[in-house]
Amino acid sequence: MDTLNINGTEDTPSVTLDKSKGVFEISGRSLPEDAAGFFKPVLSWIEAYKDQSNPATNLQVKLEYFNTASSKLILDILTKFEKIQGAKIIWYHFSDDEDMKEAGQEFSELVEIPFEFKAM
Fold this sequence. Notes:
Distance between the termini: 31 Å
Strand content: 25-35%
Largest sheet: 6 strands, mixed
Shape: globular
């Protein structure tokens, strides 16, 4: 399975989905003009991965900021991870960023997948 690497920009997050190295990470800022278009390859990759997933999959989410359109797509990503056996979300937030911590807590209530919260 090919690795998906998307380099982040000022408006789009960096995404690394690497089955062979066990690295699953979304980081940076997410306010793309076309959120659905930006996240389409990410959702497709996860869909393919779920049928041949690793025994453990830890998605690290290290977002500094995301807009409303990205929020919907992040929920779609988390919903796809629900279907992956042994998956867990590690939600990072700056220790002084209550909004990002609360966003992660809200997502954790919407999906049936273990969440771990870590301050950076």
